[in-house]
Amino acid sequence: MAQTTKRALADSMKKLLAKSPLDKITVKDLVEDCGVNRQTFYYHFHDVYDLVEWIFREELAEIAREEINYSSWSEVLYRLADHLTQNRALILNVYNSVSHGEVTRYVNKAMRPYVAAVVEEQAEGVKVSLENREFVTDLCTRGAAGLMCNWIETGMRRSQLLRLEKFERAVDGSLRLMLKNFEEK
C-alpha cells in the first residue's frame, strides 16, 4: 500500500510539473490532485523536494533495471537521456526551480551506485585500495553526471547530447587503466 501511495503522489507531482515549476507546487496542490490528505503525504516524504528525489531514484532504478556491467553502462546513459527527453517539461521545470547544485547532487547520488558496480567489475584482478576505487568511481560519476546536467542546462538540445558519445569514447578502455595506475605493487 505504501508504494502505491508513493507512486500516486509521484504521478501527481509529474502531472503538476508538466505545467508548473517545482517552486510553485505546494503540498496542498499535490494532495488535492492525488486525493490523499497532508498527513499521508508527510508520512512518506519530508517535502516536495524529497518526493522529486524519490522520483529520480525510482526512475533511474527502472531504467537501469538490468545488471549494469562495463559493456552496457553507456546504454544506461542513453536510456536515461531518452527518458529525460520524454519528460522534458518536467525535468526543465525542476531544473529551473531548484539550485543547479541540487540537481547535480541528485544526478550524482542516483548514478553513483551504477558507476561503482562497473568500477568494481573492472577492478577484478587488480590490487587497488578501496580509497582509490572510490576515487575512480567519483571521477567517472562526476564526468557522466556533469555532462547530463550540462545537457539539461542547455535546454536538452540534441547537439549537446552528442557529448555523451565523446564521453563514451574517452572512457572506453580507460577504467581498467585508471585502476591499474593505482595498483599496489
TrEMBL record:
Keywords assigned by UniProt, alphabetized: DNA-binding
Record-annotated membrane-spanning stretches: none
PROSITE patterns reported in the protein's UniProt record: HTH_TETR_2
Lineage top rank: taxon: Bacteria
Residues within the DNA-binding region(s): 26-45
Domain HTH tetR-type: 3-63
Protein name in UniProt: TetR/AcrR family transcriptional regulator C-terminal domain-containing protein
Native organism taxonomy: Bacteria, Bacillati, Bacillota, Clostridia, Eubacteriales
